[in-house]
Queue: 2 jobs
Job 1
Amino acid sequence: MDNSVINIARDFSRAPGGRFISDGPNSGERFRKEFLVPAVQKGAFQVVLDGTRGLGSSFLEEAFGGLVRLGFAPDLLRDRVVLISNDPSLVAEIKSYWH
Amino acid sequence: MPVSEKLLTTAAQFSFVITALVTMAGWFVVSRQADRREFRKEVREHMAELRARSSAVRLAAQSYWIDAAAKDAPAAAAKLKTELNSLSRQLGVLRRIGFVCDDLLMVDVRQEATGGDFEKKGRRKSRLDVDRLINLHGALDDLLTAMDEAFYEQFGTKPSNKWLRVLPIAMLPLLGSDSR
């Protein structure tokens, strides 16, 4: 895995789902803890959102919105996390959690 | 030879030019309208597909939030996410051919369909699920309305285009010089 690129489908799961770890092994909480938090602490990186079987809002909100609840400033997240997707609504949704 | 007669003679000599111009103008208008008609037909098919994808999301959401038993919930959730992907892809197709709506409309749809307790293990059904479905229907209707508006903005009759329809007819009197 390229350290500066997190490809959800390749590096995490083709079928991410659920909000909390108690909801399943591919939850937003686990993705946040194991991938997003270490990457944000390290510096700038890209997240590739395409290639999964679908991303639910519960997963997205917990994974990306959860970063703000953990104390990361929205401005810092907007600077460090580059979201890549063919679906602009996915990018718009995640950014809406960083207010 | 009087000047007026000289002019008429010259006009008669070059009448084929006028005929050619009128023919070319007619060909241009007809060809443009045929292209436009074909494109409109193609877009209509994409819009129909968008409606079909939207209906599939409604059904899949109904299945997940209301109908599915707990043991069937994971399959119903996967189906709903797949249908949302298809809807989003169809919006992408329309975007590529110039029909765009606000991305936040699709965000609303996804949040209503898969937000809150979506995929929560041991989720219990509640009255709020019905409210969620009602909101989802509203969000889908907003999305479709926006796309309809984008369609009619492009294909609605614009006064500036009307002159093209009468251009060949308006030029017909010029053909009169050809019969001289």
Note: The interface with chain A takes residues 77-78, 80-82, 84-85, 88-89, 91-92, 103-104, 106-107, 110-111, 113-121 of chain B (CB under 8 Å).
Job 2
Amino acid sequence: MTRSDVALQRTAQRLNARAWGIALGMFFGLGLLIATNLLVLKGGPNVGHHLRLLRAYFPGYSVSFVGSLIGFVYAFVLGYGLGRVIGTVYDKMVDNT
Amino acid sequence: MTRFAGDERDRYEAARGAGEPWQARSGRVRPATHTVHIEPVPERSPEEILANAELVLAFAPIHKRAFGVAVGTAAALLVMGLTLFHLLFDPPEPNLELLANYFYGYSVSWRGLFIGTAWAFMVGFVGGWFVAFCRNMVIAVSVFVTRTRAELAQTRDFLDHI
């Protein structure tokens, strides 16, 4: 394998950290948004008994439509951070091997 | 000796590489027997080269160990952050101690912080490695199927020539 082949392989193996951040952020954000609104639409006497525990970590979040929007922002930020970590650490590892 | 028409000799050389292809190994020149018509060597256009590079990029396998370490690091940071939050602010709920059901030895304490982080890294590493493995296998199988179908399509009219 020539030097250019190795360079091409490394380039092909790299992840786009920003893209990973946005993708994971959207995944987390939309996941929480949909989960919250599904419970709101379902209704009942005690809506989102477990999901509302997230307000301990996400101040302002509640199992309501407005709360789902606030939760989307929090979850997106969390997912973006995790995706960014995954992309950055992966790229560093690939560069060092 | 093989006789060439027009500039076919140059193309033949180009196709066979350097050397004297029409000379026998013993050094004796063979008499002309037949004329060879050689298909011209197709040159790759810049678009083809670019498309090939993009294909390599699209089907490149994920580095399993690196992906495992990356996911493990993210999971470890998440559990570390959650435990730190509980240690510093002590919220009444949720009960993070329940994680001890999966992470043996974990507790919301400074000792549990390190145990939980180590557990999360290990679980994240295994999960990430497995995801990368599955992704690489699916890509490899799909490339194999596509290539096999293309080869079968190329030889579909084989019986028509017999």
Note: The longest helix of chain A spans residues 65-96.
